[in-house]
UniProtKB/TrEMBL annotation:
UniProt-recorded name of the protein: Adenosine deaminase
UniProt keyword terms in alphabetical order: Hydrolase, Metal-binding, Nucleotide metabolism, Zinc
Every Adenosine deaminase domain range: 5-322
Upper lineage: Bacteria, Bacillati, Bacillota, Bacilli, Lactobacillales
The organism of origin for this protein: Candidatus Enterococcus willemsii
Residues the record lists as binding Zn(2+): 10, 12, 195, 276
Length: 333
């Protein structure tokens, strides 16, 4: 699996920091950490396999955000994420983050976004990888804050920013609150992907599509329990950004064997494979695919179909999509 080309559409920047980088930035910027021992710090940054809930899982993000408050750090962390991805043959990566989480030391939203784009561009120049940025609005924040993110990212559309997202704790009916800012985002030209159906509510998936115009759904696991929503997703070919390890950790599913990724694909639902958070979930794209390969019948045809689905679902230019498609089949050493 390591040698195969990969496409990742759902990866959080603040969940994918190198542990050594957290330690290095903290020392350089005088940021207090609970420990300065690499092994102990690793345990603080990686969520346990047995989290009690999504809320429990999300607690691992406070520490990374503390070292993501300067232009230099944001650029470095973004570059390193793309570097890590490139080394496992990821050809295209969409990285998402909440700009407002990185303004605690005075950076403007525009400075935050530009710093992340700078890291992306540096990686593209050095490695055979391409990427784009998705701006996440936190559902735990106000509707006004979502408008701020939409407005701040507008000038970066076509220059690295491609989409808007809603993430964080998922409550029933959250879409109603964010209809206006997401509608404005669509008007400006943002693509839309929404975290929904991760913690029990299949109706949120339907609302994300109908109310917010979601083109893709982050996770969408719980459509498995709702025949009506399941059929809508299948018929409309709504693409699901699935993240098996993360879903096991957050208890969206009890274990890997019960994850619906394989069955969804077999039944014609468009699924894509993603890490969600490389550090917090202690995973890579290679690892996610190897787990599925061990549990289910993942043959070359299935892998290629999902690769092509991921390329077509990417919020990328046609030229980048064609380049990604030309990477398969690869020469595997």
């Amino acid at each position: 699996m390591h040698g195969l080309p990969k496409i990742e559409l759902h990866c959080h920047l603040d969940g994918s920091l190198r542990v050594a980088t957290v330690l290095d930035i903290a020392r350089k910027e005088g940021i207090e950490l609970p420990t300065y021992h690499l092994t102990e710090l690793k345990h603080a940054l990686i969520a346990p396999e047995e989290c009690t809930s999504l809320a429990d899982y999300l607690q691992c993000f406070a520490l990374p955000n503390a070292v993501m408050q300067s232009k230099e750090s944001l650029k470095r962390i973004t570059f390193e994420l793309f570097e890590d991805a490139a080394k496992e043959n990821v050809k295209y990566l969409e990285v998402r983050f909440g700009p407002q989480l990185h303004t605690m030391k005075g950076l403007t939203l525009e400075e935050v976004i530009q710093s992340v784009i700078d890291g992306l561009k540096l990686a593209e120049a050095r490695y055979e990888i391409k990427g784009n940025i998705i701006l996440s609005c936190l559902r735990s924040m106000s509707v006004e804050s979502a408008f701020e993110v939409v407005e701040s990212g507008k000038s970066f559309l076509g220059k690295g920013v491609v989409a808007i997202d809603l993430c964080a704790i998922e409550e029933d009916g959250f879409c109603t609150r964010f209809v206006e800012p997401i509608a404005l985002a669509r008007e400006y030209g943002y693509h839309v992907t929404i975290h929904a159906g991760e913690t029990g509510s299949s109706q949120n998936v339907l609302d994300a599509v109908d109310m917010l115009g979601a083109e893709r759904i982050g996770h969408g696991v719980f459509i498995k329990d709702d025949p009506i929503v399941y059929q809508r997703v299948k018929e409309q070919q709504i693409v699901l950004e699935m993240c098996p390890t993360s879903n096991v950790q957050t208890k969206a599913v009890l274990n890997y064997q019960e994850h619906p990724f394989y069955l969804f694909h077999q039944d014609g639902i468009k699924v894509t494979m993603n890490t969600d958070n490389r550090t917090v979930s202690h995973t890579t794209m290679t690892n996610e695919w190897e787990i599925m390969e061990q549990l289910f019948t993942v043959d070359k045809q299935m892998y290629q179909m999902i690769y092509e689905t991921s390329v077509q679902a990417a919020f990328a230019t046609q030229a980048i999509k064609e380049w990604c498609l030309s990477q398969y089949p690869p020469t595997i050493h």
